[in-house]
Structure formats: C-alpha cells, structure tokens
Design a protein that fits this description.
By secondary structure, the chain is mainly β. About 5% of the residues lie in helices and about 20% in strands. The chain is globular, with a radius of gyration of 16 Å.
Amino acid sequence: MPTRKRRLLSGSLRASALLLVCVSLSARAQTTASDEWTWMGGSNSASNNAGQLGVYGTLGTAAAGNIPGGTFWASSWTDRNGNLWLFGGAGNTVGNGNSTGGYSNGLWEFRPSTNEWAWMAGTNIANQPGVYGTLGTPAAANFPGARTSAETWTDKSGNL
C-alpha cells in the first residue's frame, strides 16, 4: 500500500468534519506515520445525545478553550483562507450547562493556523427561532433559526 499522509479539516469537509465534531474534537487530526491518525485535542468521550456541551467564550473571539458542542447534521464549508465553518446541527450545542440538547443556530469558525474555535454568530440556546428582520435589509440583530441538514457551497472566491 502506498505511503499516504491524511489530514482532517482541510479540503472536502462534509463527512469528516461532521463526524469529528460529533465527538467534539477541537483540533485538526493528521498523520504522524503512514496511515495512522493522531488525536490532537478535544474530548475523547461521547456522553448523552451527541457528546460534550459547547464552550462558547466571547462572541467573535477565538480562544483555546472554545469548542462547539458535540453535534450531528451540521452544515460545514471552508473559506478561501482554509478556515472551517460550522453551522447549526443537532446535539449538545447548548453552552449554558443544559444537557438536554436540541437544534442549534450557532455559527463557528475553526482556524487551523491557531488551532482555535471562535463562536461567530447565533445563540447558545437550543431550538432558538430566527430573527429575520425586514426582507432585503441586513441588520445586526438578524439571525437564522436553529436547523439541521442545511446544504452549503462556496463560489470561486470562497464566498458562502
């Protein structure tokens, strides 16, 4: 078998990102030897529902302690800078100590260059309805409701 290096959380992320976030891994995993994975960080347990609760930190600020809660059916994509984006999903996405789980509207960014997550938008409350504002008018208070299984894509410039 040819020698290969595998790297997770780069390139096509659909299946691999969702699987890893399901057990709340906060870091990229890559091989250090041929065909072997290395656990780089995050929890190694999956408790009730989809795993660990999220640690949200300060909105818009990446930090070593931040991590989205264990989730499944989330949407993901990478931007042109190689950062992983994660939106919504079902599971333990609630960051206030509530372990009942539910659907999320949280938007997270993982920055491989710093190995940190940032909670970028949405709430840390499960099953949150959206605030849509006025049709065609952007507003800071607008955000989509909690959801799962949404499709994503990026254009040639890396825009969602």
